[in-house]
Amino acid sequence: MVKFRNFDQIEHKYAFEDAIAGADTFNGAFGAVTSGTFAVAEDGTKVIMQAEDGDNAGLPKYPIAKGEHVRVLDLTKLAGEELEVYDYPLPDEVAVGNKLTATADGSLEVNASVSKELNLEVKSVIGNKQGVVVLVNGATA
Fold first, then answer.
1. For residue 61, what is the DSSP state?
2. Fewer CB atoms < 10 Å away: N or C end of the chain?
């Protein structure tokens, strides 16, 4: 799950893009939107930021069914902003200073040689490894 770090970020009214999930996926998946359909993608610059509800709310991997409406955040518009990331899509091992990039399955991986335009730099660990605070790097504001 990906969420804003501060309440004032919500007030900036970052444009969410409405889309339909092109396949079964999870909240926090990284990918792209083409013709109104979200698909996971390596180097994805958009992330599903769905409000969780129902029996599955709070699961480490909140499922989203194919055809479901999703709210997608464009990370290229968040240069220098901090976000919080929990559970999926985080890799199993993550540490302060790691640079995270999107993989072909929509999750994140630690990438030591970041040559990709967009990456998320781990600034701190939340709680007992419950999540991380990341800085959006390489985006064009």
1. S
2. C
The predicted structure's pLDDT at residue 79: 85
User: Which residue is it, tokens 């409000």?
Assistant: 51
Residue 141, pLDDT above cutoff 60: no
Q: Check residue 14 and give its pLDDT.
A: 67
Q: 72, 77, 86: which is closest to 5 by C-alpha?
A: 86
Burial status of residue 53 (CB atoms within 10 A of its CB: 0-12, 13-18, 19 or more): exposed
Q: What is the pLDDT of residue 107?
A: 97
| pLDDT value for 7 | 63
| Confidence (pTM) | 0.89
Distance of alpha carbon 46 from alpha carbon 40, whole angstroms: 9
- What's the CA angle centered on 128, arms 106 and 58, to 5 degrees? 50
When the candidates are 2.160.20, 1.10.10, 3.40.50, 2.40.300, the CATH number that belongs to 2-137 is: 2.40.300
Angle (CA) 40 42 43, round 5° = 110
Neighbours of 100 (CB within 10 A): 24
Domain boundaries, the chain: 2-137
